[in-house]
Design goal:
Layout lengths: L1 H33 L2 H11 L5 H4 L15 H16 L4 H15 L30 H4 L2 H13 L9 H9 L11 H11 L3
Helix pairs in contact: 4-5, 4-7, 5-8, 5-9
Length: 198
């Protein structure tokens, strides 16, 4: 019985090896076109409509500009802000104002309670406060919810589209440092140009 079983196992193993050798060159030949895939991906990306950059900074930037390198988490938050802006039916300029605001408030990090370092009970991307009626902690630390709440406030600002970014952001946020939003306009516009159609 052991001899018969051993012969069967060896026979099956031999078939597997022979099958692997026979299929190997076929699979290798099939992988050659896969190497061309990045070219196809580039062609698809090139087909996406470009963002009209004149809409992103219609009034020009104000003052010196700041810029930070972003982690994958921060880029994910940029994409969440853009998705929420589209969901709210607002345009690229609204996304620029939102991202610049979040850059100033949290550096695009979804901050929870920071203890003594907190500005009162401010949390999330936009440093919104539950005690000021922005929502619960769970809500304001949800990037979609907090963006929608910010955009709801922005929609209520008459003529926000025609205001300098820092004025539009300040009208919603009521910050102790109203001019600080302006420094992030260029990076916010660059991020919207990069990710709006991605």
């Amino acid at each position: 019985m052991n001899t018969i079983m051993r012969k069967s196992v060896l026979g099956i193993a031999g078939l597997a090896v022979a099958g692997g050798l026979a299929a190997g060159p076929l699979n290798h030949a099939d992988t050659t076109p896969v190497a061309a895939t990045p070219v196809t991906a580039v062609a698809v990306a090139a087909d996406k409509p470009a963002v009209d950059k004149s809409k992103l900074i219609p009034h020009g930037v104000q003052g010196a500009q700041s810029r930070i390198d972003l982690s994958d988490e921060q880029v994910g938050n940029v994409k969440a802000i853009i998705a929420a802006t589209k969901k709210a039916g607002m345009d690229e300029r609204a996304a620029v104002v939102s991202i610049a605001t979040a850059l100033q408030e949290s550096k695009l990090e979804n901050l929870g309670h920071l203890g003594d370092r907190n500005d009162h009970d401010s949390q999330g991307l936009f440093q919104q406060r539950p005690s000021s009626g922005w929502g619960t902690v769970d809500q304001i630390t949800d990037p979609e919810y907090s963006t929608m709440a910010f955009l709801k406030g922005l929609k209520q600002v008459d003529g926000w589209q025609d205001m300098p970014l820092t004025d539009a952001a300040q009208t919603v946020q009521v910050s102790a440092y109203p001019d600080h939003y302006a420094q992030w306009e260029q990076q916010a516009a660059d991020l919207v140009a990069e990710h709006w159609n991605s």
